[in-house]
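$ fold --in a.seq
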Amino acid sequence: FWKDGQFNKQANYRERPDWIDGESVFNEAPFLQAIGELERQYGLKVVLDITGNPPFTGGIPHNEIQTAVDNLVEPYGYRYQQEGNTLRIWEP
């Protein structure tokens, strides 16, 4: 998964769900599913200008919006801009 600017391997099994520890973790989930979780966790409206719905593997922390957004966009090279509660994500 993508975290803190690098790709990390992690075992698939955990004794307790990640959300208990304040993170939503995805394994090959549709990008739009991860975006939906970002919107839900942070009360954002995300406007996308991207092609397709690539698979997303990574984590979205529930208490660090900057890290959450970076985890979503960096693996794909997407750009983003936030104004208030609206987050725009686009392909370069």
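$ fold --in b.seq
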Amino acid sequence: QIRFNSTTGLAEYYTGTEFKSIDSPPVISSISPTTQADANANIVITGSGFSSGATVKFIGNDGTEYASPSVTVNSSTQITATTPASPLTASNEPYDVKVTNVSGLSNTLADSLDAGGVPTWNTASGQIGGSLTEGDTVNITNVTASDPDGTAVTYSETTSNVLGANGLSLNPSTGAITGTLPSVSNDTTISFTLRASAGGDNTDRAFNIVNQNFTVTDINSIPESIWNSIPTGQFANAGTYTDYYGGRFDVNTGNVMQFRSEFTNEHVMYQRANARSNANEECYIQMYDISNDFGDASNGNQVCQFGIVEDDPTATGYNNNTAFGYVSTSFTKMRYTVWGQSDVASVHGFYTGGAGAGSSASIGGNSSNREVSANYRLNEYQLNFTPTNASTRTAITFVIKPDNHSSNARKVYMYYGNTKVHTFANAIGANSTVHFYCGIGQTTSSNGDFWTNNPPRIRFGDNNGSADYDVGG
């Protein structure tokens, strides 16, 4: 038998012993609010299939059921139920919400009601981590949130993995941000949103980390820790050596480069252990404690060359095969400065490749490989600090860096003291290694080799490839 029950509004069928309602279970889509610790507070339940006379229960995580003392079925899609007269405790959260129609059919929205407050951030929004620079190791541990009822908080990013794309990782349990910042060409802001979650509740907050492009404003500010002294040894004869190519010079303790006084013409040193072969990092090659007025008439008429050679320096030969004239003008793997003879402009300048003068007697007549003719006097360009107590702090520094941090080609900049005096027109190839080169030529006076008595020092630096310092460019 089938009948309609006007009291319940449902059809019923007879089982042989009793009539039972014909119904389908309700559907719960959501509740609002999702956090409520107060007694007798309204909870709006949204869904479908709600029937008049439905009941509501809140079920703790221990299985205890708390009946709602007041249930109003607003419509088949909405119910307003109040929390119990005794507040729900945080110890049993999160709570399930169960709706039961008069037919006895029910549905449950699991873990939907938090009896405590939402997580609260302990860290203000905005920049975190303080002053950070490309290549820095990051360990930010003060980005935290707490839940008022003591529920454990977990952390996540709300959208894409912004931190991971920048070499950083987020600890989901502690909120710690760790990793190593990537190299950047300009100060870069890494913006992201973190989500603190507890008991089904979430609180978002926007943060950012500023990855600064490391900029050193002058040569003095290059950290002393990155400089490497050149290996020491005596190199009297022309030939091939482990560390150098060339002869007629010694390297004394303390990276002092000293030419031998027993010779009156060319001396040359090529460093064979490349200072830097990684195109993605800067390197710096410096001669400092240079004697004032090198090449003054009273000390001989020497001309000095100092610079860099790409790839294998043996391509230029050794000893007399220097850039004074015995290297072809087609050899363009050198960048160097020449000075001497009282620093007159006819000699002084910045050169690319071989001199092509055809003779070691004078480089002054050559112009095909001289980018700039100048009359700089080196003693006018002093560093404020060098790691020695020498009487002079004159320094020449080559700064070799990637072209705008994007191209594998490297540019070469020339500094006297802290003053950039020249940028070489030709870049160094992406796969070229960098060696430094020094040579003196011409004849000496009766006073002997001036640099035997007043030797300069040479060093190179690259911070082992872990960072650059953006000098020049």
